[in-house]
Amino acid sequence: MQGLGELETAVMEVLWLDPSPQRVRDVLDALSTRRKLAYTTVMTVLDNLHRKGWVSRELDGRAYRYLATRSREDSVAHALRELLDSAEDPESVLLRFARSVSPRESEVLRRALGDTAGDQ
């Protein structure tokens, strides 16, 4: 995910998989199947994600519970938007992308553009 490190992305994946508020321990347990991490490492990553606006948190007793502030799909769409905005020739990039999509993805785009054509 653009703007996130590898561990930040892994933490976000945990939060996206279970949309209920997660404690540091919950995230650590979910990540421990893939790698060995310290509790304080996960706590620091969640704090950084909160500071960056990727997660919100609410105090529950003495521990915070964390939630993703936007869905994975919104995050990916935002990253694509940033890439297009940073391109020297965004139209060319968009056209190249459009030529690379699968027939199913092309149909989804056609339907979405058809739905918005009357909005303009």
Low-confidence regions: none
**Can you count the beta strands?**
3
Q: How large, in whole angstroms, is the Cα Rg? A: 18 Å
The protein's oligomeric status is single chain
Order of helices and strands: HEHHEEHHH
Amino- and carboxy-terminal Cα gap: 31 Å
- What is the third-level CATH name, the topology of the largest domain? Arc Repressor Mutant, subunit A
Main sheet properties: 3 strands, antiparallel
Task: Describe the fold and architecture.
With 120 residues, the protein is mainly alpha-helical. The chain has two domains: 6-68, Orthogonal Bundle (Arc Repressor Mutant, subunit A), CATH 1.10.10; 72-117. 62% of the residues lie in helices and 12% in strands. The protein is elongated, with a radius of gyration of 18 Å.
Concise synopsis of the structure shown:
This protein is mainly α and 120 residues long. 62% of the residues lie in helices and 12% in strands.
Q: Can you lay out the helices and strands and say which pair or pack?
A:
Blueprint: H1 6-17, E1 22-23, H2 24-31, H3 39-52, E2 55-60, E3 63-68, H4 72-86, H5 90-100, H6 103-117
Antiparallel strand pairs: 1-3, 2-3
Question: What brief labels describe this structure?
Answer:
mainly alpha, Arc Repressor Mutant, subunit A, three-stranded antiparallel β-sheet, 62% helix
